[in-house]
Amino acid sequence: MAVRTFKRGLRFPSTRKEATEGKPVELTPLPKQVVIPINQHFGAPNKSLVNVGDRVKRGQKIADAAASGPMTVPVHASISGVVKKIEPRTQSNNTEGICVLIEAEGDVEEEFLPSLDPFSCTKEEALARIREAGIIGMGGAGFPCHVKLSPPPNKPIDIIIADGAECEPYLTTDEAVLTEKPNLLILGLIIVMKITGVKKAIIGMEDNKTKLLPMLEREIRLNEKASSIGDIGIGLCRTRYPQGGEKLLITALTGREVPSGGLPMDAGCIVQNVGTLVAIAEAFSLGKPLVDRDLTVSGGACGTPKNIRAPIGILLPDLPPVFMEIEYGKIRKILFGGPMMGNAVPNLNIPVQKNTSGIILMTAAETVAEPEGPCIRCGRCIRNCPIRLSPVIMNMALEAGDLDEAVTAGLMDCIECGSCTYMCPARIKLVQRFRVGKGRLRIRQQARQAAQTAVQPAPAKS
Ligand code: SF4
Ligand code: SF4
Which residues contact 152 (CB under 8 A, 6 or more apart)? Predict the structure, then answer.
């Protein structure tokens, strides 16, 4: 089988995955509490549907859209118990957001949706099921899944890609999904093909997982629906960072380029993380809302690194000490997500969310603490940017406060992979600046929109 890839990017001397690679996913003990952010998606905000003192069942909807609109996704209780607090808490993106704190109490009771046959229901019923189950992209961005599966008519889709290219160091959750749930992954893929009417799908993964090929090929062969729905194949990519990025995976597997400022649908593709596809399969076969999350917990300050399945909202300190053997005194940096694209958070009392792929507890030896120096114009950031941008130019524009120049240099095409920062000999925090720059741009756009709305003439009175 041909192995494909993209130009530039990084090859890490060590991916640091060995601590959890090949380990089965272990179910966490039932925590005494969960803290569930009511807004975990990219879109219009939710409002709480419960009050302090309410008893809730696992799977019960506890928050949903404050206003109607397509970009909304509900949130569900991940354990049975009693709502003790509804208050703002720090979330994994370091912003404050309303969270529902549920304390475990009484017997575990479940309130799942009725199962639904994806092959006899209508497209509208299927999309409504995916929304009702609260499914968002679990690879990181948190985009509502039902919206991604409803591209506008002028964006025809002909390829679905299952993203199993887990290119971030330390993380091994997608590999665990491919190993342990291939039947659900393929069912999820078939459901997506049925909904979209697309006849071709590719499971994309890196060439460090070739041992999984025979098992995946057998699962595709054994699935009764697979051959009648279309063509499902496997695409191998070089183990290279950031191969799992949507745009780079599309290029590697199809030869197509997502245009500047565009989305995968502009290249005729929909990309779904393998964990998201499993969640879709479970939403139909079990009626299960997205209440659990598989994630990797690793890093030098974690005594027993593991792949775990945890209820959404769990706080790691609530687990029995012997479960993870966290060495708190050794922690220098806590990351939600991987070391390249994840967020550093101030403490471990941050809840696991639907898009938390890992928590990395790094020691001093694993972190770089060198101070930033001046740019030496070496061009290494340019040579390694997988999107072919000029990070040094974008950074100079941002330092000069020229947002428009930064946009012209490609700021909005930056996928925040961090390759430039990793390669910069002057240790300039390029990607962090680009994230801040994008935030400033969003604020400026909102201010301009608000100003335009304010000057709209009032309608004439009759
Ligand atoms: S400019 Fe953006 S896309 Fe390019 S290497 Fe840096 S972080 Fe990655
Ligand atoms: S890698 Fe760093 S030092 Fe080299 S050109 Fe880019 S910003 Fe400057």
Answer: none
pLDDT tens-digit map of 245-256? 999 999 999 999
Percent pLDDT > 70 in the chain is 98
Q: Residue 429 has which token pair? A: 């925090």
- Ligand minimally distant from the alpha carbon of residue 410: 1
What is 114-285's CATH superfamily? NADH-ubiquinone oxidoreductase 51kDa subunit (3.40.50.11540)
* Residues 41 and 144: beta-carbon distance below 8 Å: yes
pLDDT tens per residue across span 425-454: 999 999 999 999 998 998 888 888 888 777
Q: How many A from CA of 423 to the centre of ligand 2?
A: 8
Helix (H) / strand (E) containing 47: strand 46-48
Query: CATH 3.40.50.11540 occupies which residues in the chain?
Result: 114-285
Q: Which of 383, 387, 388 to mutate to test the pocket of ligand 1 (most atoms within 8 A of CB)?
A: 387
Is the pTM here over 0.90, yes or no? Answer: yes
Residue in the structure block whose two tokens are 């935030």:
439
Distance from residue 205's CA to the centre of ligand 1 (Å): 22
Query: Which residues does 384 contact at the CB level (< 8 Å), separation at least 6?
Result: 8, 9, 10, 419, 420, 422, 423
Distance from the Cα of residue 401 to its chain's centroid: 31
Contact 430, 381 (CB under 8 A): yes
Model confidence pLDDT, tens digit, residues 361-397 = 999 999 977 889 999 999 999 999 999 999 999 999 9
* Residue for token pair 């549907």: 49
Strands (E), 66-108: 75-76, 81-90, 96-104
